[in-house]
Design brief:
The chain has 9 helices and 15 strands. By secondary structure, the chain is an alpha+beta fold. The chain folds into 2 domains: about 140 residues; about 180 residues, no CATH class. It comes from Actinoplanes digitatis.
Length: about 350
């Protein structure tokens, strides 16, 4: 079975709506460990989220159930997608009565027009803007909140080898991704993504965008403009943990393959990262545990495109995320820790 809880007992099948009702029963009674529940609900989000739809209001209406739902925001967004206006009203009322992170995440996950209006109102009434922005949601000066990510998510798998015509190449020479490698702070190439293969992205002036590395283990951001060939120029690096040591890397090359979420992935500890070959995701919200970059020019929260682990091509440590500002044609790549 592709469900592998790290603790809490053996998994139960989720092969029918009745099985999902039984899982929600465990959530209601609180008779299973949160991690066990979270792994099962993550599997449900990745396979048959429509089976959870009849239970959305039951879970949202009871703060105790919501608190037991130990999920990433990415999975919560799938399960709560399109929840009713009554759910929005319940969450907004509780947030205004006593603001909490979990209620804000639940409201953020719904994604309807009513929910986006409620998020903006919550922030303007004193709610925590940073929590929403870390989840990839921008609150402009006026009007409703905006998702700055596409809801269409896929996993990224790695195939090592020589693939000259790869759609998503791994390990390109730097002169293929930056205009002037001799002056650029960029020292590594992880992955280039053909953006047409990621549904829901904003329009972009180039076919590809690049996940690159700097000579620092972690905790940095690179901003860059793109030239007519899609290469990066006018790069600006911001370091939180700069190092003078030379970081060694694995020169492996290959290609990334984008795959849909489904029952062929391994769901363990609430995620699919332990699936053999999986090195990240495209689409979906950002990690939700670090601040996301705003465009240096227009100050709008940038659009999350992909997040990969450094294992895609060993260099540095942690996660590497790619963001776009479609208005200013600016990219950002961030390097963050594991949690």
């Amino acid at each position: 079975m592709p469900i592998k809880p790290l603790r809490g007992g053996e998994p139960i099948p989720l092969d029918s709506p009745d099985d999902v009702a039984a899982l929600v029963g465990h959530l209601s009674r609180g008779d299973r460990e949160p991690a066990w529940l979270g792994t099962h609900f993550a599997y449900l989000a990745g396979t048959r989220p429509e089976w959870f739809q009849p239970h959305q209001e039951t879970v949202i209406a009871d703060p105790r159930l919501l608190a037991r739902l130990d999920l990433s925001f990415a999975d919560l967004r799938v399960l709560f997608d399109g929840a009713s206006d009554r759910c929005v009203e319940l969450l907004y009322r509780r947030l205004r009565d006593r603001w909490s992170f979990g209620e804000a995440w639940a409201l953020s996950a719904i994604g309807t027009d009513a929910a986006l209006v409620a998020i903006a109102d919550d922030v303007r009434q004193g709610g925590d803007r940073e929590v929403y922005e870390e989840s990839g949601i921008w609150i402009p000066p006026a009007g409703p909140a905006e998702y700055r990510f596409t809801p269409h998510r896929q996993v990224i798998t790695l195939e090592a080898g020589d693939f000259p015509a790869a759609d998503h190449p791994v390990g390109l020479p730097l002169d293929r991704v930056v205009r002037d490698p001799s002056t650029s702070p960029v020292s590594w190439h992880y992955l280039s993504l053909r953006l047409a293969d990621i549904p829901g992205l904003p329009a972009w002036p180039a076919t590809h965008a690049h996940l690159i590395g700097l000579n620092s283990w972690c905790m940095w951001t690179l901003f860059a403009e793109v030239d007519s060939d899609g290469r990066y120029e006018a790069e600006q690096a911001v370091f939180e943990d700069e190092t003078d040591d030379e970081i060694g890397g694995d020169p492996t090359t290959g290609r990334a393959v984008l795959r849909p979420y489904g029952p062929d992935l391994l769901y363990c500890n609430g995620h699919v990262d332990l699936t053999p070959g999986v090195v990240g995701t495209v689409g979906g919200p950002p990690l939700g545990i670090y601040p996301n970059p705003s465009c240096p020019s227009c100050k709008r929260l940038m659009f999350h495109t992909a997040t990969v682990s450094h294992h895609i091509r060993e260099y540095g440590d942690g996660w590497r995320s790619l963001y776009l500002c479609e208005d200013c044609h600016t990219v950002a790549v961030t390097a963050t820790g594991w949690n």
